[in-house]
Amino acid sequence: MNASLSKKFATENNPTKSEIETLQRAIFDNLFHIQGKSPAIATKNDFYMAVAYTVRDHLLQNWLNTIQTNFKENVKIVCYLSAEFLVGPHLSNNLINLDIENSIYKAVKESGLDIQELIDTEKEPGLGSGGLGRLAACYMDSLSSLEIPAIGYGIRYEFGIFNQKIRDGWQVEITDKWLQQGNPWEVARPEASVTVNFGGHTEPYTDEYGVYRVRWVPEYVVKGIPYDTPVLGYKVNIINTLRLWKSEACESFDFQRFDLGDYYEAVNSKVNLENISAVLYPNDEPIQGKKLRLQQQYFFVSCSLQDMIRTHLGKNPNLDNFHEQWAAQMNDTHPAVGVAELMRLLVDIHHYEWDQAWKIVQNTFSYTNHSLLPEALEKWPLSVFIQLLPRIVEIIYEINQRFLERVHIKFLGNTEKLSNLSLIDESGAKYVRMANLACVGSHTINSVSSLHSKLLKETVLRDFYELFPEKFINVTNGVTPRRWIVQSNPRLTQLIKEKIGDDWIKRLDKLQKLEDFIDDSSFRHQWRIVKRAVKQDLADYIQINGGIQVDPTSLFDVQVKRIHESKRQHLNILHIITLYNRLKHDPNLDIVPRTFIFSGKAAPGYFMAKRIIKLITSVGDVVNNDPEIGNNLKVIFLPNYNVSLGQRVYPAADLSEQIATAGKEVSGTSNMKFSLNGALTIGTFDGTNAEIQEAVAKENFFLFGLTSSEVSKVKSQQYVPRHYYEKNEELRGVIDLISSGFFSYGDCDLFKPIIDNLLYDDPYLLLADYQSYIDCQEKVDEAYKNQDYWSRMSILNVARMGKFSSDRSIQEYCDHIWNAKPITIELQS
Ligand code: M8P
């Protein structure tokens, strides 16, 4: 158990002896009744499970109360539809939210166990690949903390994002079997299963009232079984639900085939249907044309909409007021097929007239865009769509025809506008454009940062903005302070509480009060002591897990995120090699010793990203073992970046690297987590960097590089990266050293793809930004040398982070998009 955690528990309210004994008994009861173990033979995981079940028992009553209250009082429920929820480990988060850390800690301790060890035993659900999935998790946390009734709908992937190992410096992917040891936090609800159609054909018919209708005769039907996980808020009674769908074959066998004797084919098709929810696609960008991915999207969205409709009809006579009671937020276009599916459910199944159904649909859905790249907008080959979802295609065509009639009138038959806005891309092979479907079917379209908002309207959604400007708003992303400071950084939390109390945990803008202490040198001193202790924790972790000793007094310079050329981890490497060369040239050079820490996963098929990982680890191998360099430079790659690792890393950072090419990172959220933990940012004018800089003031932020409009300008003129190489001697020294095989045991081919890409193409403008980055890093060095001044800037960064709480974002969604209000859940005795 780490010291900061014990300190925190020791200062909290004191549970009585009998309360602790009751908890202890509950833990051992669960160990016996659920795990079937006695303490003598229980494993660490058994104990973790027993504690987790005890905590779950503790929250069941409030969970049930919430469900019943939602049912009794006709409240509006927010449905957050997302193909990814990167929630992170539950135990520690739930202890904090329930405010029972102290009692559980004591109960566990008196049983001879270590709570931190049990917390670390939990296998985190990796049901997301990056920022988009983590945002969904932060938003669920804030929905509960703000007491807004909500359901997160998604997929219960059996295998989440792969586990990353580093072998010989390369990324190796290992399947993530997160459910293997059991998941104490979920409750299966087979009684609420629904079915979903796939394939087959459609048939027109006339119903008993003489109305023309269409029937979908599917080729196969899949069952969706919901698994519910409670989502707690901070010290509130409401407990919302994360409902994730698992696919199963409807019958254990396809009997027709079985009768015909095709036993193996019958088993095979059962396996195929169960595979729909089997695995999360590990890419952080579109994977064009993968049939299984479209099956996943339709599967979870259809299950969720049917679930909403069934619940609605349980308390209302019809669906006329559906949109008044349900707000469905589409997290990117992944759930966009829901627009057509809700039309199908209303028109085909519940026999609504088209126009009334369309009004309900448009008033129900809203869409968050997370992308600025035209090539990153999802589109599905029409042929795949027809094969999998024949009825949905007909509905999309009908929506499109009616929509284009409006466009035709508005733009007086401008054919370019018509073809840009159409839901079907007909420029070559035909595709269904999911962003267009989402825009047409939603009442509101939101961006995720101010800069993204501006660029979105100018670029990828320009024509939609011209058509319906009133639909567009910006909601800048945010992160939850509960996980990203209270849970991950107990030492800093304690220090802040001692100074300004704890109301900032739910009202992050209250951190501003820290500014009152900025001139207090003993406070600044304490601030440094905390940072130093947290850095020591990470240094210990690095030593234990990587066998490398790092100096906690060195500047911790950290870049953790997906590995992608646009995020420019290789620009960071160019800086490291620049420092290396300088030090080799002059071993007495006065530079600030730095520990460079990287972590992140590359998409398994992304050649360049995987080679960037190899470059980082190879540079680390040379630099870390060069006796002339000593502690002046260390380069660490922490394998398997995930939520738990993020919790260790953010608190320990001095410098946060947010160096994507301007205009490429639509928001970024790790920048917020770093600042919230007192790191300063070196970053481009991109995504929410711009807003963070505005909040903390220019002098507390290290800005460098081209702006997004400069980037466009450079690209529109002829950009010749080689000119930068030729003109800049120091840059040339760095590139040449890599090319010479210095970091690859003389192998000049290993990093040739990276070097050639930089010299002859450089789509992310590393060479254009190189000098500005190096100059800015020198300013960082200068600032860090004055530790007292650095702590001032660090305190100001934390104090001014109020805006970046996901509570603020969710409040804006409630006020401007969902029209959702909080409810009160009464405690039942
Ligand atoms: C897109 C996909 C498309 C197809 C299949 C799988 C996908 C998985 C993820 C994404 C995707 O867009 N991922 C993102 S967008 N990951 C991010 O971090 C993004 O969203 C964050 C939250 O708004 C932003 O902070 C990031 O800047 C943005 O890149």
- What is the third-level CATH name, the topology of the largest domain? Rossmann fold
The share of residues in extended strands comes to 5-15%
Mean pLDDT: 95
Number of strands: 23
If classified by CATH, what would the architecture of the largest domain be? 3-Layer(aba) Sandwich
Number of separate domains:
2
What is the rounded Rg?
A: 27 Å
Ligand species: ligand M8P
Largest sheet: 10 strands, mixed
Determine the fraction of residues in helical runs and give it as a percent range.
Answer: 40-55%
* Terminal CA distance: 34 Å
Global outline:
globular
CATH class of the largest domain: Alpha Beta
Q: Quickly count the helices.
A: 34
What is this structure's SSE topology?
Blueprint: H1 3-11, H2 17-33, H3 44-72, E1 77-81, H4 91-98, H5 101-110, H6 115-121, H7 131-145, E2 150-155, E3 163-167, E4 170-174, E5 187-188, E6 194-198, E7 201-206, E8 212-217, E9 220-232, E10 239-249, H8 255-259, H9 263-274, H10 291-315, H11 322-325, E11 326-331, H12 338-349, H13 354-364, E12 365-368, E13 379-381, H14 382-388, H15 390-410, H16 415-421, E14 424-425, E15 431-433, H17 434-441, E16 444-447, H18 450-458, H19 462-467, E17 472-474, H20 481-487, H21 490-500, H22 521-546, E18 555-560, H23 569-585, E19 594-599, H24 607-624, E20 633-638, H25 643-649, E21 655-658, H26 670-676, E22 680-683, H27 689-696, E23 702-703, H28 708-716, H29 721-727, H30 729-739, H31 752-760, H32 766-785, H33 787-799, H34 806-818
Parallel strand pairs: 1-2, 1-11, 2-10, 11-12, 12-16, 16-17, 18-19, 18-21, 19-20, 21-22, 22-23
Antiparallel strand pairs: 3-4, 5-9, 6-9, 7-8, 9-10, 13-15, 14-15
The structure holds ligand M8P.
Ligand M8P binds next to helix 7.
